[in-house]
Amino acid sequence: MATTRSPDGRALLISTWTSAAFAVVALVWGLATGSQLIVFDGLYSFASVGLSLAAVLALRTARKGPDERYPWGREAWEPLTVVVKAAALAGLSIYALVSAVGEILAGGRDIDVGWALAYGVVATVAGAVVSLILRRRARAGGSDLVRAEAAEWVGDTLLSVAVLAGFVVALVLEQTGHSDLARYVDPAMVALVSAAFLPVPAKLVVSGFRELLMMSPAPHLQARIAATVSEVERTYRFAESFVRASKVGGRLDVAVEFVVDDDSTAQTVHQFDDVRADLEARFEALDQLTSMSVGFTADRRWAL
Asked: What's the number of CA atoms in the CB half-sphere (13 Å) around residue 168?
């Protein structure tokens, strides 16, 4: 329960309840106006509700820490949820794209442009507000789940902007006596928006898989880790240092091996523990939950 009261938990719950409201409103509004684009927005929101709830559960699970079943912690649930969430949204976008192309080939669709335009305004404003809330939380040190949620809402807001722009075009066409062309606006916008949105879940899938496969973290984070270890190496006059790092959810795993020679100022077990404490203090500046393993050897082959 404490997790949902955390900043990340509150942000995810805001996203969940807003998505639920959008889902109901969009489906009713879309069916009433005959707009497939609004129906797509509603289906997208329905998918987001279930996936956002999964994100909340994953966040709770990840924050429980290690135990006998999860000796290395539960942070892998975060990237796993991101991958599932992104894959589901990508599938929905592909389905919408195929359906829209079919409607275009069938001659388009008649819609109530006035009411559809009103929906575009409401959806754009609401989406922008929620996107702003989530992006602020993400910049303030939010989890990967919050960043994924923020990216999703940015994509949804862009969808709403496209909805609004498309209905403005349809209204202009109707007012100028080109109703036959206005029939193509709704399916054409569905096709364009769903195709344009596909890169967003695709990037999330790639980043999630990188963490599940325990690949190296982002280049800027790797550089900071390497610089920190190099400073410690120089401070204690170690011959060499080797660093391995990976990021899994909100946890950064770092394994460091120092090669000790006769000139090194740390030679005993107690002095090695002082090095570990120094390195741990320096890693705290990364503002990232860090799981650290530090080894020492006089033979570099054991460090490779």
From this structure: 8
The residue-averaged pLDDT of 147-151 equals: 79
Cβ–Cβ under 8 Å, residues 23 and 40: no
| Banded pLDDT at 248 (limits 50, 70, 90) | confident
- Between these two residues, 128 and 44, which has the higher pLDDT value? 128
Q: Strand ranges (DSSP E) for the chain?
A: 240-248, 251-259, 289-297
- Locate all alpha helices (DSSP H) within 214-290, ordered by sequence: 219-235, 269-283
H or E element, residue 20: helix 7-33
For residue 126, list its beta bridge partners. Answer: none
Give the list of residues 6+ apart from residue 86 with CB closer than 8 angstroms, or none.
Answer: 148, 200, 201, 202, 204, 205, 208
The Cα–Cα gap between 251 and 28 comes to 42
How far is the first Cα of the chain from the last one, in angstroms, to the nearest whole number?
44
User: Can you tell me whether residue 72 is helix, strand or coil?
Assistant: coil
Shortest CA distance to 204 belongs to which of 287, 246, 146, 139?
A: 146
Neighbours of 73 (CB within 10 A): 20
Q: Which domains does the chain have, with CATH numbers?
A: 2-212 (1.20.1510.10), 219-302 (3.30.70.1350)
Enter the pTM of the model. Answer: 0.65
